[in-house]
Write a structure and sequence with these properties.
binds nicotinamide-adenine-dinucleotide, globular, single chain, Rossmann fold
Length: about 250
């Protein structure tokens, strides 16, 4: 029970990495607010956790809307008294050559992947200052570090998340607020399967993706949830502004 009684808010909690992290954190004794733009998915996450005996509140929230992010944090504090751990994980992808990427595509990606993280950090830090500290984890991507064709807009947002994480760690570490990022490689979630399905041969696409990973497999959502758990606990007390890469070795070759 490494998070016994800790109050956590996790975004993108209705699917993939976010959902696995809600499950992992709840197993470790946390009270988890599970936020997702898909309110039904957030509710299902809540029901899954409650049926396993854990504590969870599902909320339908669009992280690209500052008022809604502020509201989710206010609801968390009103109901559970504080916010110890914030995991800004919600994200979306668009695969297009830049010459086909519209301003609307870019605005949407920036809104969720970068502004959503910015708003979470802004209002999370504001709350953590009133309670003497806390920790924030942001989901970036290995594609915030290396490039990949068709991902220019996505890479730009994830590089932004890494820069934001470093800047905020420099700004707030002295106030007992630890802020770090995770850079997942290809993880077996609905997001990556939606990307494979854009191809005429999704199976071949998946095989090609796996061939770029020295570990020889896609990551599992819980591979990332366990990295988030490490960053959320006092084991990571001296880890500030880091970008932890969890990619089966993809970026080392
Ligand atoms: N799957 C991968 O291979 C991979 C690799 C690197 C990074 N990531 C990042 O990991 C994070 C989670 O991705 P995933 O693979 O679990 O994807 P996913 O699609 O399985 O889950 C993402 C969740 O975010 C929610 N969401 C989307 N827009 C939102 C919004 N505006 N407000 C609130 N919730 C919103 C979706 O409804 C969904 O439930 C994302 O930031 C993604 O960019 C994923």
């Amino acid at each position: 029970m490494r998070l016994d009684g800790k109050v956590c808010l996790i975004t993108g909690a209705g699917s993939g990495i976010g959902q696995a992290t809600v499950e992992r954190f709840a197993q470790e004794g946390a009270i988890v607010v599970a936020v997702d733009i898909n309110a039904d998915a957030a509710q299902m996450t809540q029901e899954t956790i409650e049926s396993a005996g854990g504590h969870c509140l599902g909320l339908g929230v669009d992280v690209s809307d500052e008022e809604q992010v502020m509201g989710a944090i206010a609801d968390t504090v009103q109901k559970f008294g504080r916010l110890d751990i914030l995991f800004n994980n919600a994200g979306i992808s668009v695969l297009k050559p830049i010459i086909e990427t519209t301003e609307a595509d870019l605005d949407k990606l920036l809104g969720v992947n970068l502004k959503g993280v910015f708003f979470g950090c802004k209002h999370g830090i504001n709350q953590m200052l009133t309670q003497g500290g806390g920790t924030i984890i942001n989901t970036a991507s290995e594609l915030g570090i290396v490039g990949q064709p068709l991902y220019s807009a996505y890479c730009a947002t994830k590089g932004g998340v890494l820069a934001l994480t470093r800047a905020l760690a420099a700004e707030w570490s002295a106030q007992n607020i630890r802020i770090n990022a995770i850079c997942p490689g290809p993880i077996d979630t609905p997001m990556i399967h939606a990307e494979f399905n854009l191809s005429n041969d999704p199976m071949a696409e998946e095989k090609a993706a796996v061939s770029t990973i020295p570990a020889g497999r896609l990551g599992k959502p819980d591979d990332i949830a366990r990295v988030a758990l490490f960053l959320a606990t006092s084991d990571a007390d001296f880890v500030h502004g880091a970008a932890i890469v969890a990619d089966g070795g993809k970026t080392i070759i």
